[in-house]
Amino acid sequence: MTSAVRTTRIGAGTYLVEHDGRNETVYVAGPASDRWVFWNGQVFRGDFRPDTPLTAPAAGPKAGAHGSVTAIVAPMPARVGSVAVAIGSRVRKGDILIVLEAMKMELPIRAPGDGVVAAVHCEEGQLVQADAALMDLE
Amino acid sequence: MTSAVRTTRIGAGTYLVEHDGRNETVYVAGPASDRWVFWNGQVFRGDFRPDTPLTAPAAGPKAGAHGSVTAIVAPMPARVGSVAVAIGSRVRKGDILIVLEAMKMELPIRAPGDGVVAAVHCEEGQLVQADAALMDLE
Amino acid sequence: MIRRVLIANRGEIALRIIQACREMNIETIAVFSDADARAPHVLAADRAVAIGPAPAIQSYLSIPTLISAARAERADAVHPGYGFLSESAAFARACEQAGVVFVGPPSEVISRMGSKIEARQLMQSAGVPIVPGHVPHDQSDSGVRRALEEIGFPALVKASAGGGGKGMRVVEGIAEATGAVQAARREAVASFGDGTLYVERLLDRPRHVEVQVFADAFGHTTHLFERECSAQRRHQKVLEESPSPALTPALRQRMTQAAVAAARAAEYRNAGTIEFLVEGRGDGANFYFLEMNTRLQVEHAVTEAVVGVDLVRAQLLVASGEPLPWEEGSLAQRGHAIEARVYAEDPSREFLPQAGRLLLYREPRMPGVRVDAGVAEGHEVTVHYDPMLAKVIAVGETRDAAISRLAAALRAYPVLGIRTNIPYLLAVLDHSRFRSGDIDTSFLDREAGDLVHSVPEPPAFLREALRQLGDEADEPRTTTHEANTDPWLTLRDWRA
Amino acid sequence: MIRRVLIANRGEIALRIIQACREMNIETIAVFSDADARAPHVLAADRAVAIGPAPAIQSYLSIPTLISAARAERADAVHPGYGFLSESAAFARACEQAGVVFVGPPSEVISRMGSKIEARQLMQSAGVPIVPGHVPHDQSDSGVRRALEEIGFPALVKASAGGGGKGMRVVEGIAEATGAVQAARREAVASFGDGTLYVERLLDRPRHVEVQVFADAFGHTTHLFERECSAQRRHQKVLEESPSPALTPALRQRMTQAAVAAARAAEYRNAGTIEFLVEGRGDGANFYFLEMNTRLQVEHAVTEAVVGVDLVRAQLLVASGEPLPWEEGSLAQRGHAIEARVYAEDPSREFLPQAGRLLLYREPRMPGVRVDAGVAEGHEVTVHYDPMLAKVIAVGETRDAAISRLAAALRAYPVLGIRTNIPYLLAVLDHSRFRSGDIDTSFLDREAGDLVHSVPEPPAFLREALRQLGDEADEPRTTTHEANTDPWLTLRDWRA
Prior knowledge:
Number of helices of chain A: 0
Order of helices and strands of chain A: EEEEEEEEEEEEEE
Number of domains of chain C: 3
Radius of gyration of chain A: 21 Å
CATH superfamily of the largest domain in chain C: ATP-grasp fold, B domain
Largest sheet of chain C: 8 strands, antiparallel
Shape of chain C: globular
Strand order of the largest sheet of chain C: 14-13-10-11-12-15-22-20
Oligomer: heterotetramer
Distance between the termini of chain C: 35 Å
Helix content of chain A: under 10%
CATH class of the largest domain in chain C: Alpha Beta
Strand content of chain A: over 45%
Strand content of chain C: 15-25%
Largest sheet of chain A: 5 strands, antiparallel
Number of strands of chain C: 23
CATH class of the largest domain in chain A: Mainly Beta
């Protein structure tokens, strides 16, 4: 069986995708390395170029691992509501480390794994930007 | 009394015009020499640049005057439904010269002034483009 | 239940039908002429089939092409929309013969109601009033004069063979009858070679009021109240509303019952409209059958808003063999709805139709306003099809609120690159006669013809703003927004 | 009649109010924080006033600033919208003192109904059912146990001084009563230094059903039927509809009458909502007063669709001293309406609120669908304000039709650049319990919490289409569509 996919730009960020005799409208935004794609109520995000392995979007609070140290970063601009642990605290995966406040809501930041708090880079009431380092876990 | 007009682009072809404490949204398209402007349900068209005398949009079928000859041109793409006069016919201002057909409707093309038909450039059933010469009046 | 519908139409009505199908899980197949390859209705449908060159006669009006497309795509139904083949008995018959459901009445009903003479006789036998008129047996001067007297003045005498006003005379009273009869007979002989005359009541400033009817295959025939369509320019409807400002409850009752009787007499199925002319005012007004439209109307959205129904959904249900989806007696009018038809035409130049590219096109978006459109920014409006770009329907608690809302929507509806009738619509909505609701079918031609006779001057602040703009161009528009005639960026095919 | 309204709000509700004013020929004055200088509500208003920095506490919540703005602009009324200062008795009082009409109830009514204890007492005296509960006179173990028995199991025992669940115990039966009372008392002492206990009926899987009420200054108080708001996630309403699938005609009758009695007892004016919890099913279900919202609700559009009214227009009329615009007994529900709140939050990451730029944002446009939004493509969604981007309201002849239409609208609502709850909303609309209408306030948290726990994989055709796109960028978007934080192309000023 032969099937063809034909992609035609029909407007700003809007594409007609013809496949198996069907018409689908697909919306695309963002650079090729980080595409946002909307189709039929679903949103997909990633790098979909031919030679790039599929990347799943990060889940949970972003945690950058540097050697044995895991950096806990703010997932969005926010106000630090409270810091629940101090340097030296032992934490278990899922424990609340920090509570951020944004858009009238509280966002608990949880430990991505077991560890010990190696550094705290924020304090209560502070405004932090997205990706700002909040804490290091060892 | 002092009054200020402030014009700010707020989107594609969309401008916020602040004047006398009021906000107005104005839409603009087309080149500077032939602007289309929408404000509050009204459409304005012309060249509105500082040093250009105001041009009123042409009214009635476009008639280009060359010496004593007036060219009758098609105001839009259409089919020639009928030609009501022949070479040599005397016509009075407002007489129907040609009936064009477009969009399921008949468009009578009337004489812009008194004269004599000097040339007929179209025939019944012919498809003509906008601005195509249809007839010359002397 | 219908599973797969081919939509034998284009523009806003094709989009409307696609939307209804989508909500009912019915697959949609669009058709398109060469001029419409990337038109909105093609992009919105699940599948699309090319049916020929731009002229409608070779594409949207080609019965064999449409039937082949329906067969090739294994459609189990065809929805004709309005216009094009929607009132073609031949098309309905071709669908029936191809074993495809035609979403509308049976072909014999279409042909019955499509014949003015047959429809008139049918209505008469069903007791539905028709405009009084006949061919007098005694065609002598005095015989025709007597017939005119019986009908009452003012009356019309015209060539029985003719049409289009040739040989027609208005007769205001008995004194001028003989002269008018003789003049009409002379013209009738000259034009048609036949001097037989027809006499008819001349209606005094009639209103156009139509009643939406709906019938299923189980013997249910209902009405969905009226639409007032007296605001017409050269027989083209411009503004439609419901309820009619002219109908009293008693008159509404009589007219809707007559409409149901008419539909029953026609053995009608699916959605249809009985058009009436109304003469006089109040409970005692007279109404006369004008014609039946055996299809969905452009202005169906007015009824949807006021009665709270989805007429296209109901069409698809009834065409699938389901009963009417409404309980007996459950339908009622609520509030007021008014529709404006936005045409590509220049009101300051004798309403010359306009073709060209939509340099800028933004639809108003506000509560209580529905815009059904078949165009988009950057698209070309061609000469091939109807100049209606969109319908704007506003609903409100009262007629005044609905009119104010419609005006607010039109004032926020920029269309640039071609002229539209929006300034004219605004002027009509602002006209005291229209606001009072006291209009008849000749109102626009008689009193509102020159509402937009000149192009207005921009106010001072706007002139200054435009001066400030200078040469600034904002042209990526036609590249970021698509143009349906632009070269298409088509990416490589891929076969697996 | 009010002539000039200052709108002390932002976003979609400010736009909604501006629209109503425009249709009533009322001039509008928007206010804006530094973050909102070019927000849609600012552009839409006739005039606009800067009121301070981005944090709401310094701008949209600053009573003195708003009052000065209203005075400076010679506004004769202030509309507070919902949220912000809409239920601030202090703001209403400040308006009253400044001689500016507050579009809402008098300040003393706001403060009366804002006090849980006072409101509860008032309801009790008006015969409106409240959740049974009291502070037992005898605070001994056996005294509290007896009080629990009288109220019936399951019951709650909690710290009288407290709140937020501290010192609260669910008591399923008499056997565990003494232990629960002792534990609750210990926690109450520890947390509040006060061991006094309060006992209350524990409602079994209650539904949240609220009744819209409206009152004028001429003694007319009416209701506009109910809204069902049981689909809540962590006490945040997600989907609202009318009619409630749980109300029988008899129960509806009892609840709407109780709501009118409640509004009368409160000496209410203008638009308000009585929230009830409903326990049980059918005619015999019990309902209990929860609280009164003394303002317009987010979900008012559901009532507008089903009852066919314009609530904002009515607010402005009543605030102008006019009577209610509806005939006694003329209001009725028709069809079904359902609203989805579109939030900037990531359902696959514990509903984390999202901030960022709307790289692409296109609203669905279809018959029967209303979108009230306060954002536009290219705009920045900031952390300063509520994460609700828009409300989508679908109306249909039946609940099923309305839900299908809402789903169709959400499937055609691309929002890119930040995550939204649209995939979650679609999953909830597709859930069999939701479809059946049989849900309670804990449904979403209990059964639908993980509906969108993972990000779906694109289907094969889409993966291929994206591969074909390769590096192609379509980026003029943020320059052709404006960004509210972009440098503004401001042209030269001109003075005359």
